[in-house]
What we know:
- 70% of the residues lie in helices and 0% in strands.
- By secondary structure, the protein is mainly alpha-helical.
- It has one domain (2-245).
- α5 (93-120) runs antiparallel to α6, α6 packs antiparallel against α9 and α6 packs parallel to α10.
Amino acid sequence: MREVQGKYKGSVLGVFWSLVNPLFMLAIYTFVFSEVFRMRWGGGLDHPLDFALMLFAGMVVFGFISEVLTRAPTLVTANPNLVKKILFPLEISAPVAMISATFQFGIGLVLLLSAYTVSKGAPPATAFLFPLIALPLFLLALGMAWFISSLGVFIRDISQLIGHVLMVAMFLSPIFYPITAIPERFRQFFYLNPLTFLVEQARKVLILGEPPDWTHLALFTGFAVIVCYLGFAWFQFTRKGFADVL
């Protein structure tokens, strides 16, 4: 609650900004890509509203992981007084950042389903399967947050680097375009980006009414568990040097 309220503390609109920001960005992106560049999603989804829904689904997934990783480098360095308190569990800083980002994530998801309901009717029944897509997303974000927050103590440049990495990841993920728009010879490299799988599966269950790819979802969830465990292990291994550096 402190994290969510503190983000908008002192502003006139307060938490209402969490609703305004995604709607504003969605309107801008939809206008630029569907009206200026005349991009269409294909596969029978040729209406600008279809493009907006597919775009917003990708933005919701990317926005969550972007918010977590943007804050990760300073999770430890921003609270040096807590590092010296031996009994304070520093490892909870990453879960707190993730839960805080989940607030915005939930608002984006509600907006997406509301827009779908207004434009197309009731969301598909497969939308109830979305938590199965969100689980590996949360695990992946948590593991990376632990890892990056630890690196942020020893390598302060991480804070500047992470913004550039996220920008590249956004344009190399099928957020503004379908994966089928990528030439076949390059498509395999896009699948090396974890966001590609998550965005594609989110669209399947939320917009297209299709079940997820169960086999690859199980494998990806296992991968996310490993990343989460390794991130936590790395954080615990390196935390011994936090106090000396800070």
